[in-house]
Design a protein that fits this description.
14 helices, Aspartate Aminotransferase, domain 1, alpha/beta, about 350 residues, seven-stranded mixed beta sheet, single chain, Aspartate Aminotransferase, domain 2, 2 domains
Length: about 350
C-alpha cells in the first residue's frame, strides 16, 4: 500500500539530482569562509531575491531568530501577527534568547495585518514602554490557508515602517510559492523588506536548510548572531549543494503542487461531512473541517492512516491541514479523496 503523506511539505525527500550534487560537492571550512559550495549558494540566493548578501542557516526557525537578534537589542519590541509562525511555532526564541518582546496584533484571514493595527501597535517615546524596532510579515501565511501576500501590501507596510524609522523582516519560508501563485518575480515580494528568510526543505525539497538575505552590512552582523546560536558549520557545502539544485530546479514545479491542492479542495467540497472554503485556496496549503457527527476525529485519522493517508489535525478540534508537495502526484489526490469518502460512508 502506498503511503500518501499530506501532513507537511517538510516530508519531501531530496531528488536524485540533489543526492548527486551532495556527493560531488566541493567542500571547505565555511567558518573560515572557504567552502566554495556555500559561497556559490549564498551569492545565488541573494541575487535570486534581489539582496546584496545571504547567509546559510540550519533551519527556518534559526533564520528568523538570527534576523530578530540582528535587528533588535534586548528589551526592544517586534510587531507580529497573532497567527504568525514566528509567534506560535518558534518556541518563543526571540524572548528566550534575545530578550526581545513580541507585540501581537491580529492577522486577517488573508494573512495580512491591517496597517492601522500595525501603526496603533507602535510605541511612543514614554519610558514605560519597550522601543518598537521591527515589523514581521509571513509570506505565504501558513495558518491563513497558505495565503500569498501581494507586493502592493508589502510595499505599504514598508512605507509605514520607514515613516516610523522601523525595520521590516519577511518570514518567507514559502516565498517561492507566493511568487508562483501571484505570477510575479520573487524580487517583487522581497525588494521592500530589510531582511528575508526562505526555506529549502519545504516545497523546494532539499533535505535541510534555510537562507537569510539582506544588505551586506546586515549579513555581516547576522553571521555573528548565527555563531551565537551555534550555527557556524564547517564543510556545510554538503548541505548547500542540494540547496543550489532546489533553487535552480524546483521553483517552477511548485505550480503542480498548487494545482494538486486545488483539485483536492474541490474534491473535499463535494464530500458530505467535510467542509472547506474554496475561495481561500491559493497555494499548496488548505484547511478543512470534519463536520460529520458520524465519526470522531481520531477515528477519522486512524482509518485514513490504515488506508495509507496521513493528515495533520491543526488549528481547531475538528480542523485538518493538508499540504501538497513534490512527493504528491495527481493520482494521489484521487486516492486520498476516495479514502475520505469511504471512511465517512462506512461510519
Amino acid at each position: 500500500m502506498k503511503s500518501i503523506d499530506l501532513r507537511s511539505d517538510t516530508v519531501t525527500l531530496p531528488t536524485s539530482e540533489m543526492r548527486e550534487a551532495i556527493y560531488q560537492a566541493e567542500l571547505g571550512d565555511d567558518v573560515f569562509g572557504e567552502d566554495p559550495t556555500i559561497n556559490r549558494f549564498e551569492k545565488m540566493a541573494a541575487e535570486r531575491v534581489g539582496k546584496e548578501a545571504a547567509l546559510f542557516v540550519a533551519s527556518g526557525t534559526m533564520g528568523n531568530l538570527v534576523c530578530s537578534l540582528t535587528h533588535c537589542a534586548r528589551g526592544e519590541e517586534v510587531i507580529l501577527g497573532d497567527k504568525s509562525h514566528m509567534f506560535l511555532n518558534e518556541a518563543g526564541g526571540m524572548s528566550t534568547l534575545g530578550g526581545i518582546h513580541p507585540h501581537i496584533v491580529a492577522n486577517q484571514p488573508d494573512g495580512t495585518i491591517r496597517l492601522e493595527d500595525i501603526e496603533g501597535a507602535i510605541r511612543g517615546s514614554n519610558v514605560h514602554y519597550p522601543r518598537t524596532r521591527l515589523i514581521c510579515l509571513e509570506n505565504t501565511h501558513n495558518s491563513c490557508n497558505g495565503a500569498a501576500l501581494p507586493a502592493v501590501y508589502i510595499e505599504s507596510v514598508s512605507a509605514l515602517a520607514k515613516r516610523h524609522g522601523l525595520l521590516l523582516h519577511l518570514d518567507g519560508a514559502r516565498i517561492f510559492n507566493a511568487a508562483v501563485a501571484l505570477e510575479v518575480d520573487v524580487k517583487e515580494l522581497t525588494r521592500n523588506v530589510d531582511s528575508v528568510s526562505f526555506c529549502l526543505s519545504k516545497g523546494l525539497s532539499a533535505p535541510v536548510g534555510s537562507v537569510v538575505c539582506g544588505s551586506s552590512e546586515f549579513i555581516a552582523e547576522a553571521r555573528r548572531s548565527r555563531k551565537v546560536l551555534g550555527g557556524g558549520m564547517r564543510q556545510a557545502g554538503i548541505i548547500a549543494a542540494a540547496g543550489i539544485v532546489a533553487v535552480e530546479r524546483m521553483v517552477e514545479r511548485l505550480k503542480e503542487d498548487h494545482a494538486n491542492v486545488r483539485r483536492l479542495a474541490e474534491g473535499i467540497d463535494k464530500i458530505e461531512g467535510l467542509s472547506i472554503d474554496l475561495a481561500v485556496v491559493q497555494t499548496n496549503i488548505i484547511y478543512f473541517e470534519l463536520v460529520s457527527e458520524k465519526v470522531d476525529v481520531q477515528t477519522f485519522l486512524t482509518q485514513l492512516g490504515e488506508k495509507g493517508i496521513k493528515l495533520l489535525r491543526l488549528g481547531g478540534p475538528r480542523r485538518f491541514r493538508v499540504v501538497t508537495h513534490y512527493g504528491i502526484e495527481a493520482e494521489d489526490i484521487e486516492i486520498s479523496l476516495k479514502a475520505m469518502r469511504e471512511v465517512l460512508e462506512e461510519s
